[in-house]
Write a structure and sequence with these properties.
Belongs to the glycosyl hydrolase 2 family. It comes from Belliella marina. Keywords: Glycosidase, Hydrolase, Signal. This is Beta-galactosidase GalB. It is a single chain. The chain is globular. It is mainly beta. It contains 8 helices and 48 strands. Helices cover 10% and strands 38% of the residues. The chain starts with a strand and ends with a strand. Helix 4 links the parallel strand 26 and strand 27. Strands 23-24-25-26-27-28-29-32 form an 8-stranded parallel beta barrel, surrounded by 4 helices. A 6-stranded antiparallel beta sheet has the order 5-4-6-11-8-9, with no helix packed on it. The chain has a 5-stranded antiparallel beta sheet with strand order 2-19-18-15-16, with no helix packed on it. Bound molecules: beta-D-galactopyranose. The site of beta-D-galactopyranose has 9 residues, from loops. The site of beta-D-galactopyranose (GAL) has 9 residues, from loops.
């Protein structure tokens, strides 16, 4: 039996964002400045734009993070192809003039980019700083040798080249789409990504914490220092401290190790993600010269070949979803609130784990997973040396794989949420002997930087002798994508191996569209006979859980399998949300995926409630479809429920029968002739009513309802309110096929930054102040400006009563 136990704890290099805005140098000598404001941008290539004297007066002013692809119009002819979202890519340049205080001359100053898609090249005051092909990894450049100080202006220029296409199997976005910071520290300082915290021992009450700090002396003189490390609990109370002194030569970079004992520990759990913080203070001649914060969560976990996964000694299934990085209408441009909203919606469904398919995520994703209690599989690559798309990362592989993988581990290894490193998704090298060497090499790179988490890969070849990544013996945890029928034999096929289903389902659905009969399963492409051009239903896929890609399954099929097999650590559903690109099963104008449990606008599809009924302890009763059909037509009514023995369905007050889940059933169904009116479901336990749900036949569209997810947002120019728009009849019922064009008017300190309706084949712009409803709903996203006040969003449509919401910006 191969058993992989990880009894460690981790902390976080993180997070500059705690310090996102410049801190007063009194308090903290490390100044971290949000560097997203006041950039100039132009599409196209301008080789002279790297020079200080270049005239960018005609360029557009903007604020980062910025994704220019999402601003474009859809076309089948864009080189990105519909697979990449059918949006434009190309080249673009960014420039920013800035000054730095005189005292920065005594400091070490660098710029940090969290990710630029892709092939970024950076210049400061005309000096070339370097190139980074990988669009998902963070990087920094030292600026000190080239800066001018005081009133003089510095000029940073960034070229982004996303022209060679297709370079991805999904939508990537283009530009400086993640955050940028300017960091200034004392010459003697904690290096970039310079801490690593582990917990070599944890028992019920106490933990040993081990901290490694990489201290760097970038001055020209030898320096004595003292390093003080403190561990603070959630209430900022010091719970442990360690101090040491030493000496660093000019240019020296040295690892200093501290260890601590913490009593009465609070563990990091999915339900209660308790976070400590490690503060490292550097002193020179009695003066504080740097302060660095490393969040920390104490937990231990194990992937076991017989018992599956456990966290802090408690067995649990990993109930995960795969997520690509786009944020729907906002494109790839990082926004913390938009990521948080996605995670909130998933948490409410019962998701406890995220796989960052198939690339390093934004740091904000990991910070939120730490705070909200998600387990993370952090993934490095979708391709190695062998390509998947003509212009993808295989071209950069030889030169960059080592650096990119090392940087991923250094950047992320302090996140308590991360419990698996994936070195690749469905990598071609699994099929031939080249996989042996590369797998070993990549696993060694990871282990040299972190031995506390398993190295895994998402494999597809499940014949052991034909899978060379498996044959390398270098994986600690086997990940398998799809092939759920084979899982029951895996304990024999892969004896002694810990196994997770790294990607599953690829079930397909469009919110609010239903095709009968619902009990016949359709596998694309063999059986998928949905007409392409039927008005509102064109390019839609039925949302009963009965359509999937041929390599996958319905949601229920795989979940039943995983649920029944103790040795399977859990699964990651493909995908949590719909994402831009990969619009299987349809051709253009389909341009976003159908795989999500939640649509692109963030509205749950019905399968969401199947998971909720299985994965949460809250009582659930969800019934569908809508109740607008032709008189007499046979309609399949489904119910997902839990915490009840049975569900009774009533049509216009008359019972049409009681249904109970049998065996491993995950839903119940009635097939009844449609009759206009109300159908009502009642779930009961021991004869007592648990929940009741009603759906009414809707009349003509009459009014708009606008519902904001938050009516108070911060005046920071970043925060968002997501406003759901519903088209209702006079009685307040959702009109299930409403497609009214809704116009938005906004006043006050806010702006509309995106609109969507979740329809996978809509060619409307994500950036207009209007949107057609799709199956009764659409979404408008409002962002605060940097001013307090009240934003009013008015939603109107011809022939409908309008509605408005007010949002306090504070
Ligand atoms: C998988 C792949 C994913 C996505 C999915 C669609 O094979 O890993 O990236 O393409 O198929 O079903």
């Amino acid at each position: 039996m191969k058993k992989f136990a990880y009894q460690f704890l981790f902390a976080l290099v993180v997070f500059n964002y705690i310090l996102l805005t410049a801190c007063s140098s009194e308090e903290n000598p490390r100044e971290v400045t949000d560097f997203n404001l006041d950039w100039k941008f132009s599409l196209g290539d301008f080789p002279e734009a790297s020079e200080i004297g270049f005239d960018d007066a005609g360029w557009r002013g903007l604020e980062l993070p910025h994704d220019w692809s999402i601003e474009g119009s859809f076309s089948e002819d864009h080189p990105t192809t519909p697979q990449g979202g059918a949006l434009p890519a190309g080249k673009g340049w960014y420039r920013k003039a800035f000054s730095v205080p005189e005292n920065y001359e005594q400091k070490e100053v660098w710029i940090e980019f969290d990710g630029v898609y892709r092939n970024s090249e950076v210049w400061i005051n005309g000096h070339y700083l370097g190139k980074r092909p990988n669009g998902y990894i963070g990087f920094k450049y030292d600026l000190s040798p080239y800066l001018v100080y005081g009133d003089s202006q510095n000029l940073i220029a960034v070229k982004v080249d996303n022209e060679a296409q297709p370079n991805s199997r999904w939508y990537t976005g283009s530009g400086i789409y993640r955050n940028v910071r300017l960091v200034a520290t004392g010459k003697l300082h904690v290096d970039h990504w310079g801490t690593f915290v582990t917990t070599p021992e944890i028992d019920d009450r106490q933990a040993m914490v081990s901290l490694a700090v990489q201290l760097k002396n970038s001055s020209k003189e030898e320096g004595e220092f003292s390093l003080v490390s403190r561990i603070l609990d959630k209430d900022h109370k010091e719970v442990a401290k360690h101090e040491s002194t030493g000496n660093l030569k000019a240019g020296q970079n040295e690892k200093i190790e501290h260890s601590f004992q913490i009593e009465n520990i609070k563990l990091w759990k999915v339900e209660d993600p308790y976070l400590y913080e490690v503060i490292s203070e550097v002193y020179q001649n009695g003066q504080k010269v740097d302060v660095y914060s490393t969040p920390l969560g104490i937990r231990y976990f194990e992937f076991d070949a017989q018992k599956g996964f456990s966290l802090n000694g408690v067995s649990m299934k990993i109930q995960g979803v795969c997520m690509h990085h786009d944020l729907g209408a906002l494109g790839a441009a990082v926004n913390t609130r938009a990521i948080q909203r996605q995670l909130e919606i998933l948490k409410e469904m019962g998701v406890n784990a995220i796989r960052t398919a198939h690339n390093p995520p934004a740091p904000e994703v990991l910070r939120l997973c730490d705070q909200m209690g998600f387990i993370v599989q952090d993934e490095a690559f979708d391709a190695w040396k062998k390509r998947k798309a003509k212009e993808d990362y295989h071209k950069d592989w030889d030169e960059w794989y080592q650096r990119d993988l090392e940087d991923l581990i250094k950047r992320d290894r302090n996140h308590p949420s991360i419990m698996m490193w994936s070195i690749g998704n469905e990598i071609r090298e699994q099929f031939d002997s080249t996989g042996l060497v590369i797998t070993k090499e990549l696993a060694d790179i990871v282990k040299a930087l972190d031995t506390t988490r398993p190295v895994t890969a998402a494999l597809t070849e499940n014949e052991p002798e034909k899978n060379f990544i498996y044959q390398s013996g270098a994986l600690d945890l086997l990940g398998f994508n799809y092939k759920h029928e084979a899982y029951a034999d895996f304990s024999k096929t892969f004896p002694g191996e810990a196994i997770i289903a790294s990607e599953n389902m690829s079930a397909l659905a469009t919110r609010g569209f239903y095709q009968m009969p619902s009990d016949s399963t359709m596998r694309w492409p063999e059986a998928h006979d949905i007409p392409l051009e039927t008005g509102n239903d064109a390019y839609a896929v039925s949302a009963y859980d009965h359509v999937s890609a041929y390599w996958g399954s319905t949601h229920e099929e795989t979940w039943k399998t995983i649920k029944a097999l103790d040795y399977m650590a859990g699964l990651f559903v493909w995908t949590g949300f719909d994402y831009l690109g990969e619009p299987i099963p349809y051709p253009y104008p389909a341009r976003s995926s159908y795989f999500g449990i939640v649509d692109l606008a963030g509205f749950p599809k019905d399968a969401y409630y199947m998971y909720q009924s299985e994965w949460t302890k809250d009582p659930v009763l969800h019934i569908f479809p809508h109740w607008n059909w032709k008189e007499g037509e046979l309609v399949d009514v489904w119910a997902y429920y839990n915490q009840a023995d049975e569900v009774e369905l009533f049509l216009n007050g008359k019972s049409v029968g009681v249904q109970k889940k049998q065996g491993d059933d995950l839903h119940v169904m009635w097939r009844i002739p449609f009759e206009k009116g109300t159908f009502k479901a009642v779930s009961k336990k021991d004869g007592e009513v648990v929940l009741e749900k009603e759906i009414h036949t809707a009349g003509a569209a009459h009014q708009i309802e606008a519902i904001a997810d938050r009516t108070e947002i911060d005046a920071d120019g970043k925060d968002l309110s997501f406003i759901k728009i519903k088209v209702l009849d006079e009685q307040g019922n959702l009109v299930p096929d409403a497609a009214n064009l809704i116009n938005f008017e906004i006043s006050g300190p806010g702006k509309i930054v995106g609109v969507d309706n979740g329809y996978q084949a809509s060619l409307e712009s994500f950036k207009s102040p209007f949107r057609k409803a799709f199956n009764g709903m659409c979404l408008v996203i409002v962002q605060s400006e940097r001013a307090k006040g009240t934003v009013t969003l008015l939603a109107r449509s011809e022939g409908l009563e309008e509605d408005k919401v007010s949002i306090r910006v504070k």
